[in-house]
Structure to design on (869 residues):
C-alpha cells in the first residue's frame, strides 16, 4: 500500500485526537442534565464518537471502530430525541469511553483486548434493543444492526441496494471503486437498476444515473460492508439486508456474535500492530501543542533581538567615547530583549492547569458514588499556567489529595445534615500564581482533621513522645509522615498509610512544598506550592570560604545570626540551637562539603534556616551574597548526580556555582550523624 | 590479568580491522608522551580555575563553564597516580568527548602540555606488555614508536567512572525512618 509510509505517524495523530475526543465526550457526558439534554452538548459528544469511529476504521483499528459504532448508534438516538437521556445510559456511555480509552492505550502495546468491549457491546445492544424506538429514517441501519446482533439463522450473504445521488461524482467518489472493494469481500452479483431512466437528451456526463442491486455471498460482517460505504453514506440511498440460511440450525446468539467478530479481526491485526509499535516509540519524545500567538510573539522578539544586535555591532568597527550613551542604551535594550525572550520561551512550555484538573469531575463523581457522598466540585483558576513537566507530575499527588478529601474529609449526607451543614459537600480545586510560584489548593468543607485521633495514633506509633505537646499546625502536618493513617478500615480508596507521604515526596521532588490547614467541623485546606518551571529557580547565593553555593529560595525560611553560647552540643556531635520554641540542628556546610571556611565559629557566620520534607536545619555559611534567578544546568549531562547537589548554574562572571539540594543535603547530614552515633556506640 | 588479556585480544581484533590506526594527539605528562585519538578531542583550552564538587574522587578537580555547558575537569596526573605539580602557563585542558553507555559526555583533561599530532598505522601500534599486577594498564590502549620516542596511547572512554549512586533512594528511605525515630525519642 502506498499510504504505508506515513501511516504510523498519522496513526499517532489519530491516537492523540481520539484521546482529545474521549475527553470531550467525557466532560460532555458529565455535564448532561438527565432527561433534558442540551442539543449542543449532545452534538459535540456525538461528533467526537463519530470521528473516533471514522478514524479507527481508516487506520484499520477495527476493534475500536466497531465498538465506537455501537456507542454512536446509541448517542444518535439520544441526540435525535428518540431516547431519553437516562442515568443508566450516561453511565454506560462513560464506561464505553473508558473502554475505548483502554483500547487506544493498548494499541501502543500492540494487542487490543476486546473482552471488555464485547461485554459492553452486549449491554449497548441490550439498551438499543430493549426500549429503543428506532427512528424511521434510520430504519435500515438499525434493522441491519439488530439483525447482526439478534439471534437468528446464520448469515450467508447480503442484499445490498446502492443508489448514488446524481452528484456523487462531483465529490470525487467513484461508485465503481466501491463495487470493486465489495468484490474483494466475496462473490458479488451485480444488477444495475435505474439506468433505463436515461434519456439521451437529458444525459449529463458529470452525473451518476445508475443504481445497483447487489448480492454478496459469504459470512461477511456488516461492518466490513459499511466501511466500504463510509465515505459515500451521505450521498446515496443504501440498504443492506442480510440473507439468512433458514435451513441451518438456530445457534445461540453468542455464537453468531463471535463468528462475526472472528471474521472482522484477522485482517486488521498486523496493521494495528505495526502502526502501534512505531507510535509507542514516537510517544517517548513527547510533543507539545503551542498556541500560534505564543510562537508569533517569539518571532517578534527574535526580530527585535536581531535589530539590537545589528545596532550594537556598529560599535565594533568604529567607536569613540562620545557614543557611550548610545552603547549603554543598546545594552539596556539587549537585556530587555533577553529577559522577554526568556519569558516567551518559558511560556511555550506553559500549559493551563485545566489539563490536570480535567480528570477530576469524573473522578469525584465516581468516587462520590462509591462512597455515597454528595459532592459539588468547584474548579477555580483553571487557566493558570504552569510548566508542562510540572503539570505532568502534579497529577498523581493531586488525585491523592482529592481522594483523601473525599474519603476522610467530606462526611456522608446524613452526618452533614446532623452537623447542620447542607447535604452536598463542597470540594474546591483552586489554582493561582503568587510570585514565581503556583499555588494549588484542595479545599473541602468536611469534618476537618481529627487532631485527637491523629495525635493518639502518632503516640501509638511512637512518632510523637507521650509527653510531647504539639501545636495544632504540627499535628495536622503529621499526616504527611510515612506509614501514617488514622483510618482503621483500609478501604479501596485510602487508608493504607501510603499516600500522604508519597504526595509530599513527589511534590518535594518538583521543588515544591505541601501543607495543610484544618479546622474541626469546618473543613481542610491542602496547599501545594510549586515553582512555575523546573528550568529556572530563584536562588540565594551564599559563600563558604572561596566557594559560592546557591540555596533555592523556596527552601529558605529565614536567616539568623546567633552565637556559640546559644548552641548546645549533645552526644554524638549533634549541635542544636534554639530558634524561638524549637531546637534545630546545625549543619556546617564546610564540613559536609570538605571546603575551607573563613571561620568555624558560629558567631562569625550566618545560619540559613532551611526546610525540606518538614525537617528544619540551620545551614552554617560564611556570608549571604545576592539573590538571583539562576538557570539550572545538569551535572549529570557530563558527569553524574551528586548527593546534596541538585545541579549547577553559571554566574554572571562565567564561573560555575553549585545549587544545593536541600532535602538531599539534610538526608546526607542525618545519615552522617547516624554513622557518627553508631561509631560512638561501638566505642562505648 | 584477565583484563589485560582481553584487551590484547580486542586490540588484535582492532588491528586486524585496521581500527587502532589513525591520527593521535599527543601530550606530555611527567616527561612521558601520551596519545589520544584525535577524533575524540573537541578542543584545547588554557587552564582556568574550576568549581570543586564536594565528595568526589581526588582526581575530579571540579566543573568548568564551557560556553554554557557544565563540564567536569579531571587531573590526569592524579588519575594516573603521578605526583601533582603546580599548574603553569603551558598547562592545558584537553576537552574530549567520552562515550559511556551510548551517552556522550564532554570532559576536560588537565595535562602538562600538548606535544604533537601523528598519523599512526595499525602495524605501528603494539598491545601493552604485561607489566605485572603492580602497574595499572587499565586505560592503556597500546604503545607506538615514533622515531626514537615511545608514545603511550590511552583509551579515553575508560578514564572516568560515571556510575550513578544507585543505592541513593534506599538510603533516603532509611534516613526518613531514622528521622521518624529521632522524633519519637
Amino acid at each position: 500500500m502506498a499510504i504505508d509510509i506515513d501511516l504510523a505517524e498519522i496513526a499517532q495523530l489519530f491516537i492523540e485526537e481520539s484521546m482529545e475526543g474521549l475527553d470531550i465526550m467525557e466532560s460532555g457526558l458529565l455535564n448532561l442534565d438527565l432527561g433534558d439534554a442540551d442539543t449542543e452538548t449532545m452534538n459535540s459528544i456525538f461528533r467526537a464518537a463519530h470521528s473516533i469511529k471514522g478514524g479507527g476504521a481508516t487506520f484499520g483499528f477495527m476493534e475500536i471502530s466497531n465498538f465506537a459504532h455501537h456507542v454512536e448508534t446509541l448517542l444518535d438516538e439520544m441526540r435525535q430525541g428518540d431516547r431519553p437521556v437516562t442515568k443508566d445510559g450516561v453511565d454506560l456511555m462513560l464506561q464505553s469511553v473508558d473502554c475505548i480509552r483502554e483500547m487506544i492505550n493498548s494499541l501502543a502495546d500492540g494487542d487490543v483486548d476486546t473482552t471488555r468491549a464485547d461485554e459492553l457491546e452486549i449491554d449497548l445492544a441490550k439498551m438499543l434493543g430493549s426500549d429503543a424506538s428506532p427512528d424511521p429514517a434510520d430504519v435500515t441501519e438499525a434493522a441491519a444492526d439488530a439483525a447482526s446482533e439478534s439471534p437468528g439463522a446464520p448469515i450467508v450473504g447480503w442484499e445490498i441496494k446502492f443508489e448514488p445521488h446524481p452528484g456523487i461524482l462531483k465529490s470525487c467518489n467513484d461508485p465503481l471503486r466501491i463495487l470493486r472493494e465489495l468484490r474483494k469481500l466475496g462473490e458479488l452479483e451485480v444488477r444495475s437498476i435505474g439506468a433505463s431512466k436515461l434519456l439521451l437528451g437529458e444525459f449529463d456526463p458529470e452525473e451518476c444515473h445508475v443504481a445497483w442491486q447487489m448480492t454478496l455471498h459469504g459470512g461477511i460482517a456488516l461492518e466490513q460492508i459499511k466501511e466500504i460505504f463510509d465515505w459515500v453514506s451521505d450521498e446515496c440511498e443504501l440498504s443492506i439486508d442480510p440473507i439468512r440460511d433458514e435451513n441451518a440450525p438456530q445457534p445461540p446468539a453468542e455464537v453468531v456474535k463471535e463468528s462475526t467478530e472472528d471474521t472482522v479481526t484477522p485482517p486488521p491485526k498486523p496493521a494495528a500492530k505495526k502502526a502501534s509499535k512505531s507510535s509507542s516509540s514516537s510517544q517517548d519524545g513527547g510533543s507539545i501543542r503551542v498556541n500560534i500567538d505564543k510562537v508569533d510573539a517569539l518571532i517578534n522578539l527574535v526580530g527585535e533581538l536581531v535589530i539590537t544586535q545589528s545596532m550594537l555591532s556598529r560599535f565594533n568597527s568604529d567607536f569613540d567615547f562620545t557614543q557611550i550613551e548610545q552603547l549603554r542604551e543598546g545594552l539596556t535594550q539587549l537585556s530587555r530583549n533577553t529577559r522577554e525572550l526568556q519569558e516567551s520561551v518559558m511560556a511555550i512550555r506553559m500549559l493551563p492547569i485545566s489539563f490536570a484538573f480535567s480528570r477530576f469531575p469524573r473522578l469525584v463523581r465516581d468516587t462520590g458514588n462509591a462512597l455515597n457522598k454528595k459532592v459539588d466540585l468547584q474548579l477555580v483558576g483553571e487557566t493558570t499556567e504552569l510548566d508542562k513537566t510540572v503539570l505532568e507530575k502534579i497529577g498523581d499527588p493531586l488525585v491523592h489529595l482529592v481522594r483523601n478529601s473525599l474519603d476522610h474529609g467530606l462526611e456522608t449526607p446524613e452526618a452533614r445534615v446532623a452537623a447542620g451543614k447542607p447535604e452536598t459537600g463542597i470540594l474546591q480545586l483552586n489554582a493561582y500564581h503568587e510570585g514565581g510560584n503556583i499555588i494549588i489548593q484542595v479545599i473541602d468543607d468536611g469534618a476537618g482533621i481529627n487532631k485527637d485521633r491523629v495525635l493518639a495514633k502518632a503516640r501509638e506509633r511512637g512518632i510523637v513522645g507521650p509527653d510531647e505537646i504539639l501545636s495544632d499546625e504540627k499535628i495536622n502536618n503529621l499526616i504527611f509522615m510515612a506509614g501514617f493513617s488514622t483510618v482503621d478500615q483500609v478501604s479501596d480508596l485510602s487508608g493504607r498509610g501510603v499516600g500522604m507521604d508519597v504526595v509530599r515526596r513527589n511534590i518535594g521532588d518538583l521543588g515544591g512544598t505541601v501543607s495543610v490547614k484544618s479546622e474541626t467541623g469546618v473543613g481542610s485546606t491542602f496547599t501545594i506550592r510549586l515553582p512555575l518551571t523546573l528550568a529556572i529557580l530563584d536562588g540565594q547565593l551564599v559563600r563558604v570560604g572561596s566557594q559560592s553555593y546557591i540555596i533555592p529560595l523556596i527552601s529558605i525560611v529565614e536567616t539568623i545570626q546567633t552565637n556559640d553560647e546559644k548552641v548546645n552540643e549533645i552526644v554524638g556531635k549533634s549541635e542544636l540551637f534554639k530558634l524561638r520554641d524549637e531546637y534545630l540542628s546545625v549543619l556546617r556546610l564546610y564540613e559536609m562539603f570538605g571546603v575551607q571556611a573563613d571561620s568555624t565559629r558560629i558567631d562569625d557566620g550566618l545560619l540559613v534556616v532551611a526546610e525540606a520534607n518538614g525537617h528544619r536545619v540551620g545551614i552554617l555559611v560564611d556570608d549571604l551574597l545576592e539573590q538571583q534567578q539562576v538557570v539550572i544546568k545538569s551535572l549529570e549531562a557530563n558527569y553524574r548526580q551528586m548527593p546534596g547537589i541538585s545541579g549547577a548554574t553559571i554566574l554572571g562572571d562565567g564561573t560555575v556555582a553549585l545549587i544545593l539540594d536541600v532535602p538531599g543535603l539534610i538526608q546526607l547530614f542525618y545519615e552522617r550523624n547516624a554513622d557518627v552515633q553508631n561509631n560512638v556506640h561501638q566505642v562505648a | 590479568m584477565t583484563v589485560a588479556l582481553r584487551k590484547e585480544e580486542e586490540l588484535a581484533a582492532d588491528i586486524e580491522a585496521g581500527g587502532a590506526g589513525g591520527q593521535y594527539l599527543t601530550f606530555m605528562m611527567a616527561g612521558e608522551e601520551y596519545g589520544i585519538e584525535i577524533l575524540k578531542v573537541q578542543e584545547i583550552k588554557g587552564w582556568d580555575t574550576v568549581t570543586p564538587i564536594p565528595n568526589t574522587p581526588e582526581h575530579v578537580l571540579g566543573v568548568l563553564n564551557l560556553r554554557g555547558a557544565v563540564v567536569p575537569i579531571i587531573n590526569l596526573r592524579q588519575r594516573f597516580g603521578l605526583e601533582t605539580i603546580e599548574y603553569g602557563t603551558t598547562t592545558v585542558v584537553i576537552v574530549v568527548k567520552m562515550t559511556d553507555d551510548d551517552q556522550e559526555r564532554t570532559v576536560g583533561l588537565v595535562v602538562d602540555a600538548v606535544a604533537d599530532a601523528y598519523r599512526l598505522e595499525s602495524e605501528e601500534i603494539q598491545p601493552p606488555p604485561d607489566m605485572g599486577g603492580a602497574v595499572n594498564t587499565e586505560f592503556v590502549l597500546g604503545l607506538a614508536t615514533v622515531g626514537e620516542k615511545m608514545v603511550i596511547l590511552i583509551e579515553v572512554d575508560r578514564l572516568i567512572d560515571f556510575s550513578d549512586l544507585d543505592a541513593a533512594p534506599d538510603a533516603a528511605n532509611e534516613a526518613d525512618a531514622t528521622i521518624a525515630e529521632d522524633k519519637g525519642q
Notes: The first strand of chain B starts at residue 22 and ends at 29. Confidence is low (pLDDT under 50) at residues 1-5, 164-185 of chain B.
